[in-house]
Amino acid sequence: MVTFVSHCFDVHEWSLIIEVYEVCRAIFELYLGLLMQKHTFSIGYRNIIRFKNTKRMVDIN
């Protein structure tokens, strides 16, 4: 009976640990996604500026 109760407690503890891990992972993935999106956006923005500058240089020449 005692082992059964401790076994149930262990299972509950593990499910709690897994739940916390899942939440942390979801938050981390969301943060990473936003960070990557911001990074790709800045790269795209820089490329657009570079393209405009090269186009302007071509127009001048």
TrEMBL record:
This is Uncharacterized protein. It comes from the Eukaryota. It comes from Vitis vinifera (Grape).
